Each structure stands twice: as structure tokens, then as C-alpha cells.
Amino acid sequence: MTVTGRASGAKGAAAGVWMITVCAFLAGTSKVVEASVELCLDQLMKELKGHALAVGRQGRRLLVTMSVCATPDLPFGESMERVRVALSRCGFEADELEVLSATPRTEIAEAIAVGAEPHLWSSTDVAARLGISRQRVHTMMQTGKLPHADCFVGRAAGFERARIEAFAREREESRDSGGDG
């Protein structure tokens, strides 16, 4: 397995608390079958209890967002190893682990303080944007009429705001042009 880091995750990152997203590229030989993926994601979240804030899946990529303490010499190595071990225990075999993003926690706090738009929306946010109920959001997800969640925090779905905005625009355009919507 290859372990790489990029963005601020490269060697020499400042010491302190960081929010990182680790991507695991699943091997074609992973024991996990489609029907059991959600159960395995729940198990992965339990394995990383106290470390992972969210886990999600996009095709053959598993995404784990976690809060970590980094040192300049070994920015995220311990966390990457923790993710690798947890993946293995859950039946996932990863070809590669990579730090996709790394943001100092102080920057996140500053963004919240100035009222920055959240990157992820809850199903309540999605329902409000689309003008439907939360139950309808889940039904549309299950039937493939709405993009699947990008991550889960426990059982709560998290949707990338940009993807939902694009979906909503397409839905509105389809409705305006006489499509199903």
C-alpha cells in the first residue's frame, strides 16, 4: 500500500490541531460487497471512534475526515496508520492512502466566526433548498433520484453544498422546460 500526502499534509506542516480528509483507494479485491457497504462504514466509524468525524464513500474511494494533532516531523503518519488498520479490520483493502486536504483548526474556527458558508449540508439543509421534506430527501436518495450523500457523521448524511446546488439548478431548469423535475 502506498501512503502519500499533499496540500498542507506534506512533511513540514506546522505543529498543532488539523482537520484532515484521508482518501483510501480501495483495491479491487476488497471483501466488502455493495450490499454491506453501509454496515462496513458504520463499523469503520466505530473503529475510529474518537478520531473520525465523518466517513463516506465515492465509488472506490473511502473518505475519512478527522481531527489530528500534527508535528512538523510526522504531520499525519500516525493518523494514516490508524485509518489503514481500521480499514483492514472492517474488510476494506486499500491500494493507497492519501491526505486530500489538511486545514489548521484555527482557520476553520476563523471561517465559522466570519459566517462562511458550510461545505457540507445536512438532509435538513437539502430539503430546505429543494423545497421538500427530509423524508423525501431520503426516499429520493434511495431511489437514485438524488445524489447519494458524500459522507456520514454517525447515521446523519452530509451532502456537498456545490453538488446539491448544481442538482437543484438542473431540477429547476428541467421543471421550467416541462421535464419531470
What does this protein structure show overall?
By secondary structure, the protein is an alpha+beta fold. It folds into two domains: 2-113, 2-Layer Sandwich (Alpha-Beta Plaits); 120-176, Multidrug-efflux Transporter Regulator, Chain: A, Domain 2 (Orthogonal Bundle), CATH 1.10.1660. Helix content is 36%, strand content 29%. The protein has six helices and eight strands; from the N terminus they run E-E-H-E-E-H-E-H-E-H-H-E-E-H. A five-stranded mixed sheet has the order 1-5-2-4-3. Strands 6-8-7 form a three-stranded antiparallel sheet. The longest helix is centred in the last third of the chain and has 16 residues, at 161-176. The termini are far apart. Mean pLDDT is 76; it is low at 1-12.
Task: Give me the secondary-structure topology.
Blueprint: E1 2-5, E2 16-26, H1 37-47, E3 52-58, E4 61-70, H2 77-89, E5 94-104, H3 105-113, E6 120-121, H4 123-130, H5 134-142, E7 151-153, E8 156-160, H6 161-176
Parallel strand pairs: 1-5
Antiparallel strand pairs: 2-4, 2-5, 3-4, 6-8, 7-8
Which architecture of the largest domain per CATH? 2-Layer Sandwich
| Tally of alpha and pi helices | 6
Q: What is the SS-derived class?
A: alpha+beta
**Helix content bin:** 25-40%
| Residue-averaged pLDDT | 76
Annotated CATH topology of the largest domain: Alpha-Beta Plaits
End-to-end Cα distance: 44 Å
Q: How large, in whole angstroms, is the Cα Rg?
A: 18 Å
* Largest beta-sheet characterization: 5 strands, mixed
Low-confidence stretches: 1-12
Q: Reading side by side through the largest sheet, how are the strands ordered?
A: 1-5-2-4-3
CATH superfamily of the largest domain: YebC, transcriptional regulation domain
At the first level of CATH, the class of the largest domain is: Alpha Beta
Q: Beta-strand level of the residues, as a percent range?
A: 25-35%
Q: Could you say which overall geometry the principal axes of the C-alpha atoms support?
A: globular
The strand count comes to: 8
Series of H and E elements: EEHEEHEHEHHEEH
State the domain count: 2
